[in-house]
């Protein structure tokens, strides 16, 4: 078993989710904390010096921390019931790529750092890429501090428990200046490389994507004593709204809209809910189309709610505009990986947030299942191990 597959194998029991299947590794949870310790130990065993910055981003340095370094990284947190590769593949490939570069005796002209970003999935506090948004100032620190998880814990409290000073969260000029070029290697999360495509692709851009919360207010009541004609049931409205989401997106070429999370309040089997919260994830290559899509969905939701004697509010939780990667860096990645096609990705990444501030690029590794954010996410061992060589080829060119 070669480097990347054995690194991934060594964490394969951390954060397993017996109910959902796959892995649930929320930021700053016991599982993700264990993964951060794993990363720190693996990096230190390679002679890399590891530090944590004010936003909880881990930096493992080969060479002195310096401005304009070459940086590669990804994340270790996961979606609920996520796959084994989304995030950890980029981290394992970076560690193994350092082994390859050292074996090749590569002489560095600048330092190399491997970074681990917290809360890339936004699964616990609701905002994706929270670590890189804090680093770049793309989110107001106060807004970040007051984000709450389902248990009501604020990000400030979770960050403090993880050893950070929540008052210190926010744009970090020094850390940002240290990123001369940023490359993220990541499992391909769609069918871009298909069943028998090449092992790797180079990223060109990321679809714009956002998260909205729809709250449907109705009349909570008793399931047994309330006649059907006397109801204002927000769950009945929510069901029709979700169908309207699907129909609206299906009618818009290239659009993707998902309601993957819904919550009935209070949530009793024998209780007509007083409120139903549902979260919308909407994406498209053109930001104006995404905006129009959400507007159309909101209008349909208001009509449906009114018909059911309910009301509905819409709140935006986060939005990331369509992002293109640095063309010069993309060309260098393509030179180092001549057989790699160029892919647009529908998945968000920290590289997408960083691309607005520093030269950033991505490499994708073939996932024959074409499925992600699911235990079925898959990378063949040979491709996983080759990904370290591909990343080393790219990094050697840039070092
Ligand atoms: O949601 C996304 O696209 C990313 O996986 N966080
Ligand atoms: Mn990811
Ligand atoms: Mn993901
Ligand atoms: Mn991502």
UniProtKB/TrEMBL annotation:
UniProt superkingdom: Bacteria
Zinc listed as a keyword: yes
One GO MF term: hydrolase activity, acting on carbon-nitrogen (but not peptide) bonds, in linear amidines
Residues covered by the Peptidase M20 dimerisation domain: 208-304
Record: residues binding Zn(2+) 2: 86, 121, 373
Protein's recorded name: Allantoate amidohydrolase
Keywords: Hydrolase, Metal-binding, Zinc
Cofactor binding, note field: Binds 2 Zn(2+) ions per subunit.
